[in-house]
Amino acid sequence: MTVRWAAPGRVNLIGEHVDYQDGLVLPFALAQHTSATVERRAGDQVVARSRGQENAFAVSSSPGEVEGWAAYVAGVVWALRDEGAAVPGLTIDLDSDVPVGAGLSSSAALECAVAGALSDELDLGLSPTALATIARRAENDYVGAPTGAMDQMASMLGESGHALLLDCRDLSTRQVPFDLSGAGLTLLVIDTHAEHSNVGGAYADRRSDCEAAAAQLGLSTLRDAEVGDLPRVTDAVHRRRAQHVMSEIARVQEVATILDAGRPADIGAQLSASHVSLRDDFEVSCDELDAAVDAALAAGALGARMTGGGFGGCAIALVRDGDVTAVEQRVQSAYDRRGWRAADIFAATPSHGAHRVG
Ligand code: GLA
Hints:
With about 350 residues, the protein is an alpha+beta fold. It has two domains: about 5-175, Ribosomal Protein S5, domain 2, CATH 3.30.230.10; about 180-350, GHMP kinase, C-terminal domain (Alpha-Beta Plaits, 2-Layer Sandwich). It is built from nine helices and twelve strands.
């Protein structure tokens, strides 16, 4: 039997660097996706193929034994086996139109497509949340990127025309209406091409700053911190990190309330405030992201912010349909003036999450 699944990348609308603090996040699934076609083969090897590249590894591989893009595939096999599944030899063919390394969760798309296809091929009957958890274990425990739950949950559970309100404390979810075209709006994704990685040290540093702030407050995460607690965080850097997390969770709640009321054009102020907080308090932005956000706002965007882990990757801008060209031109001329490579700019469509396609 051959099983084929498709799983999308994601854009986080708001709720940045709060998932690993048990916070609330509001991502949506993109139309861009990765597909994984799985077939059994004799022997105990997994042969993974992607765009003319082939990588073979043992079904029983352990963390550290497979590198590069194949590690995400090996990580899913490893996580399923760790949960007790008997995984046979496999051929896995991959294809993707999710931009890689842009902070749009190409890795989660890959993991979720493989997890879904394997679950069906092996008749495991795993729920979307269980598949997202397997995919996240591949990322955290096999690849070694200490990320939160957001990306894999968005890829698995997204619904078209909606953003996914995810409570990272218990992985409970609620679909929040996000009808852009009905409101005459476009959500532009601006890929800065600035380098971005979650495996490197800065992401882990931010996590440990938050953990230190929470520990000083006697809490396991900052989810339960209150504004009045802040002065008790003695280290000024840790205090600013906590300030970001607390204010960002509040902004997610505000945006969800506005979207529930069917007023997507009114979330701009929260998006822009999120960027300022990520830039100044959490310090995960960079010149390319700031320039994209500033140019978009100057050209009439209703709100704009960096999205994803930061230090590069993508910004988003909420724009009235009639202002799209002006915003694109302003961003490109800001880049041109600085001698930077032109940004890739495209409209994001809140789309369906991972599903079987064959
Ligand atoms: C990356 C991680 C996510 C999340 C974001 C920041 O995308 O994979 O888990 O922490 O950064 O919000």
